[in-house]
Design a protein that fits this description.
CATH class of one domain: Mainly Alpha
Number of helices: 8
Largest sheet: 2 strands, antiparallel
Strand content: under 5%
Order of helices and strands: HEEHHHHHHH
Number of strands: 2
CATH superfamily of one domain: Ferritin, core subunit, four-helix bundle
CATH topology of one domain: Ferritin
Structural class: mainly alpha
Radius of gyration: 18 Å
Shape: globular
Strand order of the largest sheet: 1-2
CATH architecture of one domain: Up-down Bundle
């Protein structure tokens, strides 16, 4: 078995483990809180501006069009906003994974694409379950920004596609892991924090797998090899 396939199998193991832990650990959610610690119902929460309840930390500008406040405000994460962002990211990754499964010019890229689809669809099932439980409306289709990212990859072919896909997977995984880690550390809803904690290792591992495969592929393309 080549290194590429070994890397991909790591994610399958982590995903199966996360499913098992999730089934044992879901507990009633904790309502959102104000910076002073006052618990809020969803109706009360909607009356607070995002900059008070949960400033969106977005150093990359990925979600500049989704509202939020200063990244230097109170460190209280908006759990509902996290779920909505995660849903969009999952939808994007499913589409990108489908592209890789179909367009990849190497076995490892096609397999990683199929793995991406499987992981993200199953993750999204858990996310939808949690969103419904908390009364959060999440998107079932990509917005223009995510469509643009998918379209950019869709226009590539062959080795160019493989290279861009692996780079995108490493980068997106890094960003997603940062979002999940922030929720784990600063989320206000214990159930959402548990969700993020269970899937964070899988997301981190996927990003590392893509990074390793990208480095391996780059090394193989060096002159004299």
């Amino acid at each position: 078995m080549g290194n590429g396939m070994k890397y991909v199998l790591i994610i399958s193991t982590l995903l199966a483990a996360s499913d098992g832990v999730w089934a044992q650990s879901v507990s009633p959610s904790v309502a959102a809180q104000t910076p002073e610690g006052q618990r809020l119902s969803p109706e009360q929460e909607s009356a607070y501006p995002p900059s008070v309840l949960a400033p969106v930390r977005d150093p990359t500008g990925l979600y500049a069009n989704m509202g939020g406040g200063s990244p230097f405000g109170p460190r209280i994460i908006d759990d509902h906003a996290f779920l909505r962002r995660a849903a969009l990211d999952d939808l994007e990754q499913v589409e990108i994974g489908k592209l890789a499964a179909r367009k990849g010019s190497s076995d490892m890229v096609r397999e990683l694409g199929r793995q991406t689809v499987s992981e993200r669809q199953r993750l999204n099932q858990k996310l939808e379950q949690l969103a419904a439980q908390d009364g959060v409306n999440i998107s079932d289709k990509l917005n223009a920004w995510h469509e643009g990212r998918v379209g950019k990859l869709a226009r590539l072919e062959g080795a160019q596609f493989d290279k861009a896909f692996l780079k995108e997977q490493a980068h997106a995984g890094h960003n997603d892991a940062a979002e999940f880690r922030e929720e784990v550390q600063h989320g206000g809803d214990v159930t959402v924090r548990q969700f993020a904690a269970r899937f964070l290792p899988m997301i981190e591992s996927h990003a590392q797998v893509a990074k390793n495969l990208e480095a391996e592929k780059g090394a193989a393309e060096q002159p004299g090899r």
